[in-house]
Amino acid sequence: MKAEAPNPNLIVWFQNRFVRLAEANVNILTHALNYGTGVFEGIRGYYDEKQRDLFIFRGLEHYERWKRNCGVLRINVPPSALELCDITAELCRRNNFHTDVYFRPLAYKSSARIGVAADDNDAYAIVPVPFGHYYETPKGLKAGVVSWRRIDDTAIPGRAKICGAYVNSVLATDEARRNGHDEAIFLTQDGHVAEGATCNIFVVRNGKLLTPPVTDNILEGITRASIMELAHKELKMEVVERSIDRSELYMCEEIFFVGTAVEIAPVTEVDHRLVGGGQVGPVTQKVRALFQDVTRNRMPSYSQWLWPVYRNSLIEKTA
Ligand SMILES: Cc1ncc(COP(=O)(O)O)c(C=O)c1O
């Protein structure tokens, strides 16, 4: 994963206007910085050279989820999901992006004072960053089950992308990397497979595509939903949402992670055991190829999932 500091001259959306990233700063006492009371999103835009356009992938669904998630912390983001897509597209145009982009919307409790009680002072920002692949995965990833359990809905709801909850993912990733893995696998409190640190998980077992249900403390991923639909409709696979035992990871044919950042990431080793003989399996390959075609607008039947930046206006999209 590349982790360069973003260009300070990037144009971002902050305090209801377009400003340079270097000017988008908050007070050290900001509630969200001290107590984790923010809700973020991760969205990708895919550039296609041939079409000379940048496609925001499922922007509406991401912004709708963000607004719903903000409701958990009672953070108000006034614009509609449609308006937020339009701001995002305008950010791309102002930055003159002709590359793949990752968008980071962040809404937060913005009062700058001591005290955990939240008030109604909310703010939000959208930061676009040119971004390639999170993982270079031709050979597949090594994944490992970590000792940290996935946060439970009764503690902090994992289905909302709440900033403070990501300490769980940070600890898991740190442990996984130190143990020689690329990515962590979380179990739930009762020992079922939940997901990766920043991604959902799929397992191919006896030819069926399995993924944990949304009640197993996973983030309700938009990539996950897209892959379930694509596998069912395009690959004619049986897709089953059910709890998965840890030992099933050792006995399945294939494992792959999905998510906005990781996209489709094959897992060829789990807990130091080879998955599917250590090769990227055929289902993973097909799913990855499909996802690439869909996200770069090469499958017209899914173009409604894309928001084209350079040949689009709000009116056209809503008509
Ligand atoms: C914990 C967690 N699980 C799963 C995902 C994948 O969700 P999505 O596909 O909506 O990006 C993410 C990333 O957003 C995540 O942070």
Structure in a nutshell:
With 319 residues, this protein is of the alpha+beta class.
Describe the structure in your own words:
- It is a single chain.
- The protein has 319 residues and is of the alpha+beta class.
- The protein has eight helices and 17 strands.
- It has helices at 31-35, 59-72, 81-95, 167-178, 222-233, 248-251, 282-295, 314-318; strands spanning 11-14, 17-20, 38-40, 43-48, 53-57, 101-109, 122-130, 141-149, 183-187, 193-196, 200-205, 208-211, 239-241, 254-259, 263-270, 273-274, 306-308.
- Strands 8, 9, 10, 11, 12, 13, 14, 15 and 16 form a nine-stranded mixed sheet that branches. Strands 1, 2, 3, 4, 5, 6, 7 and 17 form an eight-stranded antiparallel sheet that branches.
- A hairpin with a 2-residue loop joins strand 1 and strand 2.
- Helix 2 crosses helix 3 (81-95).
- The radius of gyration is 20 Å and the shape is globular.
- The termini are far apart.
- The mean pLDDT is 95.
- The structure holds pyridoxal-5'-phosphate (PLP).
- Pyridoxal-5'-phosphate is lined by residues 42, 169, 195, 198-200, 219, 221-224, 259-260.
